[in-house]
């Protein structure tokens, strides 16, 4: 592995390798880079948890972190992403974590740089470390994927999480169903059937709520309490969930929209646990990529 | 102590403990955190000296610093301060330094997080590390508080320094008087009498000038040379100050308004000394909070 | 040397000293500051390569880096550069790297601070580390300056590179010529003759293209393909360049304007090599300045 771009490109074996390394970091394994290595974080869209989660992961591994504020960079002077990446390479960066508004922004870069690229979100495309931390959280809970009932609910169409997760969970043996308003259904994923939220809560082992991506909608949607009643997780619905089933959400949560605010930290919720797990999973990915880069291996 | 929020909550003994540790750092004591600890700086209002002073203090103690640029964070997506703090906690932060425009923004957070919160300014409320560095600077000069004549002069009403300092200095035995335009007097602090600037310079051991907080006024005030003549420290007034008396100002100074520009670095001025002391005092606070947090002590 | 402000103030011997140290860093020399030293980066204009190049250099030398985002600082409250510098000094910075829109912004600071100031660009004035990395790149290629034909081509008037480089290259024995549109000629540099781009490609050992400084023009210039045809490096012109001659550009490149986009990474191009060299040269400068500052030497 040289780059981490989407879940589709990851072999099942590589996924298990990453989850296993993440578990080692969770239980206290310490690895510090013996050489000075530089990781640059380029976020072209606002982010808190992903950006800082990567930063914590990078520092725990002993890397030097360069935070690239896009508002004060030469991108202001019209510089292309390609030239920015070649510049980072020239000044000695080893890897770059990128969030960008364009889907598959990384295509033109792949064969042109010695840097490892870690995709931290490409438009409505993919967000592989989010998928991996979701897998890690599910595995931690159930110790398997095979046969699990997973319902992914909400703004399927604009979510980079929904698509990545549905495919990989199916590949790992889970049974995946979608739920959500018809206008946000994604015709590219027609293999997954839709059910109502009332059905979802009774079926799911894992109820994976999605954030309404207001920032990616051309018109503001109806992100209100009527959404909660029709499509979200109300207090009443949570009561009908199966024993031992869990609630997930990639956050930030629109409280009172996707989920009743009192449920965000309820016993079933793994929302903050997901964030904690994100650090371990990102450590695993960075460690794997930069170690391989060092050994000269290329995907 | 788990949090540092305002001066009122600090026991006199704790204040002396902080000043004593600050003095140890000033005279060269080196303490480096043996474990990796993360401190996040969240500044919702512009700042130079406070932000960088904290950053230098954090690094001198060997902490990992995470600078949270509020303009590029998920607060842009409408995330609440509560959820931001819980996120920082989940990804492994140990303490958070916050400056925020709302008074007592920290109230809803206190019993909800394992993080130590250090208030670096809440609206027109408090700014405890500024008070502590002011105390440290006074103690360095006079080696006592009891019986000292302290005049706090200027924009009393909008200052988070005035209120904190007046109360704590009185508690420590100093005699505190206010000076300033009647429209900026603060009825919540009616126990402290007002005197003119002409009286102030003749009485004060410590003349503590305040910054005119233009950014917190609903209407722009008369921050001009006529202010200097009526309420500020002119060259002429400085000449009438008592031997060994000192001038303080939390900075940034509006030169030619609160004080004649030539006096900013005059012999009596401790303005840049205050900034230097700020680093030692913040090291003392961070060291105390993070050490206690480690021992599981809670206020 | 206490400060690094422009090339004019550097003795020829000091230039050779810097280039020699840069070569040592390029070939793997490791120097880590035994004490904790703080370097602040103050960029008042957008920058990618210069800012990050300095940051990598600072970290490779083991310094603590403080990145000062001017948009969130007290400069927003009207604080002067002088007071900002004095603040950085008070809180313990050892050196400050500044890019600023005003020519010779540093004049009022020089005798007022114990900090080392490194000029990373002053308006249309100077950018000494860019000149030094250009010299380093030329020396690496030709192992001499004497007798080399150097053509500096493009927006001479608004470039801080053109003036610095022309003078210092002449001092070191090179033969320097200019090329570019008549409206961007610089009457302050009348000693250097102008030639056409067609002549330039046939004469130059070093063809140094300049970025069109759109951001410094009061009216937008004709930065288009017609510029490329008249004044830029086309594919056709590159073919007429002398054997072993090289192409340089300080970047970011306006692709298709100053140079045909396919030539940016051609065999003759040293554009990304210049960026790599920038790190070594900046390490050399910082190492020299901070070491001397330590020994109490002052220019």
Automatic annotation (TrEMBL), chains A, B, C:
It comes from the Bacteria. Pfam families: OTCace, OTCace_N. Residues 2-140 form the Aspartate/ornithine carbamoyltransferase carbamoyl-P binding domain. L-aspartate binds at residues 77, 160, 211. Residues 146-288 form the Aspartate/ornithine carbamoyltransferase Asp/Orn-binding domain. PROSITE patterns: CARBAMOYLTRANSFERASE. Heterododecamer (2C3:3R2) of six catalytic PyrB chains organized as two trimers (C3), and six regulatory PyrI chains organized as three dimers (R2). This is Aspartate carbamoyltransferase. The gene is pyrB.
